[in-house]
Amino acid sequence: MKIIGSNLIEYPVEMVWESLLDPRVLVATIPGCERLVPTGDNAYDMTVTAGVAAIKGTYQGSCSLSDLKEHESLVMRLTGAGAPGTIDATVQVYFGEADAGVTKIDYEADAVVGGMVGGVGQRMLTSVSKRMAGEFFDNVADAIGQGGPSGAVPGPDGLVPQLSVVGDSAPEVRGQVYTAPARAAASSRDDFLKGIAVGAGLVVLGVVAGRLFGRR
Amino acid sequence: MSEELHDVRLMVNGATHELRVPARRLLSDALRHDLRLTGTHVGCEHGVCGACTVLVDGAPMRSCLMFAVSAEGAEVTTVEGLANPDGSLGPVQQAFAECHGLQCGFCTPGFLTTITAGLRENPTPTHEEAREMVAGNLCRCTGYQNIVKAVERAAELGS
Amino acid sequence: MTTKLMGQAVQRVEDQRFLRGLGRYVDDVAVEQDVLHAAVLRSPHAHARILDIDVSEVLDVEGVHAVYTYDDLASCTPQMAEPLPLLIPHPSLTHGRTQHALAKDEVNYVGEAIAFVVADDRYVAEDAVGRIRVDYELLPPVVGVEAARAAAVLVHDDVPGNVAARMEQSVGDAPAAIAAAPHRLALDLTVERSACMPMEGRGTVARWDPDLNRLQVWTSTQSSTGVRAAVAVKMGLDLGQVDVITPDVGGGFGVKINHPWPEELLVPMAARALGRTVKFTEDRREHFISSAHERGQVQHIEVGFDDDGRLHGLDVEFWHDHGAFIPYGLIVPIITSTQLLGPYKPQSYRVRFESLYTNTVMVTPYRGAGRPQGCYAMERTMDAIADYLGKDRAEVRAVNFIQPDEFPFDQGLVFQDGRELEYDSGDYPAMLEKTKALVGWDEFPAFRAEMAAEGRQVGIGLACYVEGTGVGPYEGAHVHIETNGKVKVATGLTTQGQGHATVFAQLVADELGCSFEDVEVVTGDTRRMPYAVGTFASRAAVMSGSAIHLAAKRAKEKVLRIAAEALEADEKDLQIVDGVVSVKGSPGTSIDLGTVSVLSNPLRYAFDEKSKAATQFSIGDPGKPPVAEDDEPGLEGKDFYSPERATFASGMHAVIVETDPETAEITILKYAVVHDCGHLINPMIVEGQIHGGVAQGVGGALYERMAYDESGQLLNASFMDFLMPYVTEVPDGIDIDHLETPSPLNPLGIKGAGEAGVIPSAAVFAAAVEDAERGRLPDFTIRAMPISPSELFHLRESQGQEQTS
Description:
The complex is a heterotrimer of chains A (216), B (159) and C (805). Chain A is an alpha+beta fold. In chain A, 22% of the residues lie in helices and 38% in strands. Chain A has a single domain (2-207), classed as Alpha-D-Glucose-1,6-Bisphosphate, Chain A, domain 4. An 8-stranded antiparallel beta sheet of chain A has the order 1-7-6-5-4-3-2-8. Chain A is globular. Chain B is an alpha+beta fold and 159 residues long. Chain B is 33% helix and 17% strand. In chain B, a hairpin with a 2-residue loop joins strand 3 and strand 4. In chain B, helix 2 (91-99) packs across helix 5 and helix 4 (127-133) crosses helix 5. Chain B is globular and about 50 Å long. Chain C is of the alpha+beta class. Chain C is built from 19 helices and 29 strands. The longest helix of chain C has 28 residues, at 540-567. Chains in contact: A-C, B-C.
């Protein structure tokens, strides 16, 4: 399945690039992401709760970024498995300048969706993916604007992770578990549309009603 | 957004049922899907064919034109409630069997309830009145000849 | 002695559950709460390209489980993405096109399925359908025969002239005969579309069982085996993995013979993809715009005849509008072509037709399946000839009848079953006499004068038809006598209200000697009888009736053989009465069918008291194998009936109508039917079929038409505007008389009766109304049907003006 899309973030390319490589940002901005554990350079294990309308599920997966051309492009590889199905996606992400201080992100995802997930219909999957992408990038823009993920849960060192803005490289602590901030007044849309958004390639994973799960 | 549900108490064929249904749930759908009384059939959903006719407080009504919530407090009789207490066929049903008043049976429950109410109101219809009594129900199989005979036979059996 | 049930008006066994509301129609199947329900996004345009389908707003509807479009079909199987099967190919059908299960890039009729939504319930599914945004590029639509013929616009780019097929059949040289005949006439006729409109629409339920690796499908169909085969292929399953169970069906009349509907494929696809039971039940509007219609034709007839009205040559050309797709092939126009001949023997005949595409709902058979149009053409021609010669309309017909001693009569054409059009038996002159007597044909002039004196105008019409029924290839039956004495019978074709369970039980009871109450008949369940064709063409009684009779015979043979051994009697001394086998004249020496069944299956293990009698120390000759080489355990009989050709029923209708001189209201004063369907199994059921057919005929002649506008919108897609008869529109009483010319082609001598009532209706009403109007307008002519009172009103005006000017 091919999914192609683009989004705008009203911050310079450098800041966007930094934030996408920062696990503290990712855990707070990926819709539905509950846990993010770095396993290597720009590689993570993730737990994400994803769904479409009435159909939700939790996935264990991994995400890794490679072929990094700073401020230009990267390739994201995403895999995940959960009760409702499996996902294997490779996403080409391109960074460009739409305007002064405005980043344009173009993505091309090649995804193979297996299991029950494949049953919802391609257009549903594509639609959810794009919606998640939009939400993710909006979240990233918010995160940059706030100067860091707000309300992030402190890690074992007791420090609340901060996003450093210009020049600093994103801190990466192998084994550090990043957990998602408590979402206070989450919008009904968020509740509704918890999907997985990793970088720019978005694929819906869990699509079986939780109440169904026990019946099979 | 999920729909608001309303508590409705439906009295159907002498039994009381508590349901939680959206406001827009038709009575025909509530009977069929919430109460599993599938004897009432839906032929058009726009109130023309009469297959969905049930008795509401004794009066024939198109259940596809009523919301379940508006049947709160009313006594509903469906085709399942027309047989005798011992399970044998009531006079209208018996008449239909004798006169071959049904073929596929889909429109039949609507006729049975309509005629039951009709004969209550007019137990000794003339031939013309018997035809009038069923003039609001569509049947595609029987051509009505035997249905009219069944009305007249039911009148005999009921008397 | 019990009386034979053949020919008896036995009360129907089906009624016991229908009258209590315990029928199980497709929407009553699987009413448990966790079934998912489907709704379909249908094209609002008659002809358009699909540019984009946007389902993003569906995401906000809670309770939606899936939305499928064409792009999803290939991930089920490659064949799911291919067009639906063309069910009945024909060499003349050079440009056959069928739709895809969901529209691929283009829609060709209002109602075509574009997206399939599966949700927690139908309300939610429809909410979701409403939120799907489709971008269309509108294309000009083709509506009506004239536009199709003109072909300024094409329905399908690769079908030149919108012509799917051109076909010609002929006997002798009709054009030459017409040119040489003493007299000639030409007629141009039209018939409008109508539709079956069963009270129950279509529906399908499917359940994929992963434990058994099987698909179970319930569908409101006329062909369980047809659906099974199509679903198996499209789903990539073995035939043996698919069960199709036909539930109670609320009427078919032909529309449910077409298969697979897109939904019959999409529901199983969704069921397997989602791991849930999925149900689709259409609503009435959907039935109007996405099932099938029939009857629309434009006809041109040329006829040459002599002073007696004897046909020398008949040359018919017609244009058949089959809608946007043609899955059922050319059956309807072929039937028109061949059955047009009716009970007559024109000395030469040529028929040519073009089957044309239009951007409208497709056309598949509706009760009569092309015969009504053919009968209309022929009977209007007969009336025109009689009028021209100033002769009695019945006389002109009689002169052209095939005579009783001319059977079997080969018309020299190929029928819809690919076989010769050879009439097996009939007696048309006798039938005409009965019809005339029944309606009061000879007395009518006096009646007309009487009415005229009161200022009332009445008219009489007559129409004759022949109906090829009981077409093959075959039907089969399985009869199983169980150890409890119950006789379980299965045949594979389906039931939509014809009372098959009763009628077939009568046949079994008669042949087997069991009691009627012990027989239980199942139809349309591929688990019970997987070899079958379907219910259509008035074939069930002939085909399954014969097969059941033969299967019961086989079972009886085995019963007698085993009983003879058990009773130590001779087989020919035995009789079976009410389920008990006894020696004639010696009632004490007897054994009941249940016990015979026990004995038929040699056991090692008894499972109850009765079965002990069949265990190895109780029964059997130690010197012989317990089951003989050419035998099988159990008390079953199975057989098939496959005829060489169809058997030809016939009938005549006559109607007396009154037309109001001012309001043009049309009232039916008397309706007479004489019909011949060979031997009757259950006369009450046969009459019921005639009543129903007559009612549909009245509707089709006077009220029913599909009103398409020039942009291909169906303007009357509801019961409010598509006028079907209520009791007030049908005659108050139909006079019916029978004639029985048995069929030599099957053991019971039966012919089909299901479609009879509707075949001559357009013809007979056109004739009667025309006759009534000629009191005031001597040249009043009806060429287009249906004719409603308001149309009659306008026709009077226009023809009256023509005549006065």
